[in-house]
């Protein structure tokens, strides 16, 4: 084993040793305050949905924005974890934290199995392989007995956190979702700004050079794939508790398309871009639902305008104006 397998190159390691910038600390603090009071301003279930999709988009951005790998099948981990968590709660009678945990672990294992095969291809071939596996998961969910077929798993009980704190009410569950989402985003931030994250950026920018430096590129790709799938599963498992439902919508290919839209709209390769993108898309879906199929058309128009006016995403353009990474 060469020295570079265990010790990152100096130029890759140095940025990770710096502390969190004051601007980022201020944004995280403001975000926490806003989320803490959000149930007073909007319906708690809507706020929880925004947080679940924000975490989902952030997990996807780890793979695309920092790993340089475009997946068209992330709904497999989001929806797969949703089914497992819902089944654990309803059939096995597990508490919400254990149900979410087992759903997240299932997504990580699924990500490991699919990622080990997918990373053997690059570019559009990689994307198509992930889509193919996601479709297999979809048809499994459609045909398997325990998933409920087209009806899904309904009336999932929320139970009590650690067997002590009931989370049947939306207000009580909200702060559990807030802790999970905020903790997940902080974890993603730490991953991106660690030596591991710096190597990922090097592979994304110039993979042959990373190979020449001695990095085992496929190991890094597989690791980031599994991390992204696991955190996407955390979002999906949490969502099943919020809506007390796991359905085919969660594993449908359109869900994979939505998370790509959220990430591109907010800003690929930024920390806060996917959060904004998810908020915009979920808000449109919620408040324009009365317009029926026109919601999809409006989303398409906004996406086209976003690509034309904000080539790097909304947060990406804002970062350029401020000359500071966001």
TrEMBL record:
Q: Which compartment or compartments is the protein found in?
A: Cell membrane
Listed transmembrane segments? 26-46, 53-78, 98-117, 124-141, 172-192, 259-281, 287-310
Classification via InterPro entries: ABC_transp_permease, LivM-like
Membrane topology field: Multi-pass membrane protein
A Pfam family found in this protein is BPD_transp_2
Please indicate if the UniProt record lists Membrane as a keyword: yes
Task: Name the major location.
Answer: membrane
Lineage, top-rank taxon, reads Bacteria
- List the GO molecular function terms: branched-chain amino acid transmembrane transporter activity
**What is the name of the protein in this document?**
Amino acid/amide ABC transporter membrane protein 2, HAAT family
Organism the protein comes from: Limimaricola pyoseonensis
